[in-house]
Each structure stands twice: as C-alpha cells, then as structure tokens.
Amino acid sequence: DLPLELRSVPICGWIEYNITNGGAEQLIGNSGSHWREVLDSGIRVYEAMGERQGAEQLSHFRDAAIEVGHEIDDFVRRMYPDDADEDEDEDLHTDMSDYFSERPELADPDSIMSCDVSKRRYEWLERNRDKILMLIRALSSKYE
Questions:
Q1: Which runs of consecutive H residues, i.e. helices, occur in 90-128?
Q2: pLDDT, tens digit, for every residue of 57-107?
Q3: Angle between the 4-31 and 52-67 helix axes, to the nearest 10 degrees?
Q4: How far apart are the first and last CA of the chain?
Q5: Is residue 115 pLDDT above 90, yes or no?
Q6: Which whole-number Å values give the CA distances from 72 to 14, 101, 128, 132, in the listed order?
Q7: Mean of per-residue pLDDT scores for the chain
Q8: Residue 96: exposed, middle, or buried by beta-carbon count in 10 A (0-12, 13-18, 19+)?
Q9: pTM for this structure?
Q10: Is the separation of the CB atoms in 63 and 138 below 8 Å?
C-alpha cells in the first residue's frame, strides 16, 4: 500500500483533471466500474491532507451519485461492454450527458471541486516535497 503522499498525486490529479475538463460525466466515464473506489480514495486522501473543503465537496457528490448508482452503473456497463466485439452505443454519450445535466448535484463541476482545492493540494505537495522524494527513492530502491 502506497503512503498517502504518493497516492495523493495520481488519485487527486485524476479526479481534478476529469472534473475540470469534462465534469462528473467524464470522471465517472473514465473511472469505469471503479468510480466508487476512485471517489472513496479521493475523499480519504483529501481528508488526510487536511483539505476539508475538497473532501466535503467530493463526499457530497459521491453520496448523490450513489443514490442513482444503479443508473450510473448501467451507463458504465454500456460504455465498457464485456463483449469487445459489441458495437458501442452511439447515443450513449449523449444519453449520459443528458442524464448528468438534468441533475444539478451531479452536473456542476464547481459544486464538486473548486479550483482552490487543486491550488491547496499543490501547496501541500510542495510543503511535503522532501518527504515525497524520500518515499519515491525508498520505493525505487526496493525494486532495483
């Protein structure tokens, strides 16, 4: 299990990038069937970093998404069919976009993650830079 400082880089970057680039629809779509785990991990990381606002915003979004989780799971199953030969549903992205846009609690990227959260996370990473580099070196030496 990676230390918090190392886990924070990919999970928070993934969440923040997807939300600011394409909103909740993109975050869920790109996370596939792992969307719950991605959100739960992000909340834990933001909490551990002391980023209460980010954890609360993401937690509120996660709770709203879980309420309609079976519908989101249906979109994800259609997006990533088990049968690789199956044709992708051409209307899927439109349907998913419409679904999210009809639900303000799922659609508004600013309500899920403010730009300030990313800024504060970068500041946290900078404050912990030496520790992060030490952890990377220690981890790298295990596999040399």
A1: 92-101, 104-107, 109-112, 115-127
A2: 889 889 989 998 888 898 888 887 775 545 555 566 667 778 877 877 776
A3: 30
A4: 18
A5: no
A6: 19, 13, 36, 35
A7: 82
A8: buried
A9: 0.79
A10: no
